[in-house]
Task: structure prediction
Amino acid sequence: MSKEKISRREFVTRSTLLGAVGAIGGVAGTGSIVSSCSGSSESTGKYQPLQSDIPVYIPETGDKAIDGKNIRAGIIGCGNRGSGAIRNFLDAADGITVVAMADIFQDRLETLRGYLREKRNIEVSDSKIHYGFDAYKKVCEDPDVDLVIVTTPSIFHAIQARYGIEQGKHVFCEKAAGIDPVSCRAFSVAVKQAQAKGLCLQTGAQRHHQRAYVESYKRVREGMIGKIVSGVVKWNQGAMSYRKRRPEWTDMEYMLRDFFSWNWLCGDHVIDQLVHNIDVFTWFSHLKPVSVLGMGSQLQRRTGDIFDNFCLDIVYEGGVRVNAQARQIEGCDNDISETIIGTKGVWTSKDMSIVDNDGNLVWKYDYDAEKENYQQRDPYVLEHMDLINHIRSGKSLTLEAETLVTSSLTGAMGRESAYTGKEYRWDEFLVSDLSLMPEELHLGNVKDFATKYVPPKMGKLAPDMN
Result:
């Protein structure tokens, strides 16, 4: 296990502010792939399509990616999501393999390496195994790697994805794009670099490839619910699992192994989970936020410094308002869904349907037809299929990554608003120098750990009553 230290300055090369702001600021106005809907729905011609200069991109996915060049992947981050992403990647196509691996911890890497050897007949040589905070560079620089798969904690996504693009690699990067303005701007620069180089930068926003969502998106953009006026998005679930600290773990190792519990690593669950739901609204609406006012607290969580409940009031362009909720508390009613309200009707993900303003069912997704027509229905596999199709066709793929930058920055605004009780505005937050990256990365103990990493409390204590 590597014990080297690396400073934040060494780890993060900050993007040029002007270029990054231009990239993020253009999300609502530009797209990297101009594609019409593949196939028309029964609604075409009956409704007024919603106007936008963002292209309506519909992925073409069957049961396997198209045949073509062999694709050799390198994986950065070999924990649970990394192991899952590798399985999804290998299920998506023929003629693909894994040739390089990187992680902080040997046990996690060797577990995945053993799976590849025993279940997939893939042997990754010792010379392609790398450990440490800067091990990602060796994977990205490897001439045998065509595609870099980034599945590390979210704080590292932007710098690792950007480095992969700079080295001329295609990149698949898990959500979120970033957890603060600095990392979101860096990810946006990576998007622009991928476009300039004709590379693919795909993200783990798998709902973009879940067929029920894709078909719903088509209907909304075709105008079936009319002009979008508001929405409700929720990720309310029971308590998140956590790791008990082992005596032999240092402060840093403990946080890295339980990274979903620590704000600087995951950006809180308003980004780690709710970003999916926010991203659905961003994707369907083609709108950017103007401001966020939120609240939240830590009521029942047993580890870490993040909240376990949030409620956000997000105002988008044109005065469109979205209520966004996130909760990780046992013993409560759960709801993970999105509802988008228009002038003519309402779409909801709960049953993938549209009803008009009189309550009449206008459209409902046909799951039975999907089962009849497709064997592969896992959106986590379908997103890799779409990526491989683009790589083999020689086409750049970045539109979903652009959308996720907006969604991630929206989630970060919501977190900071909930932590402080203050309204945050997009134009100001976009250019903020807020970064959650520690000044130094190492695998040792952290000075003042017990007092440094505590959950915030918004507002002030009530005054004494006399």
Summary: The longest strand covers residues 228-237. The mean pLDDT is 91.
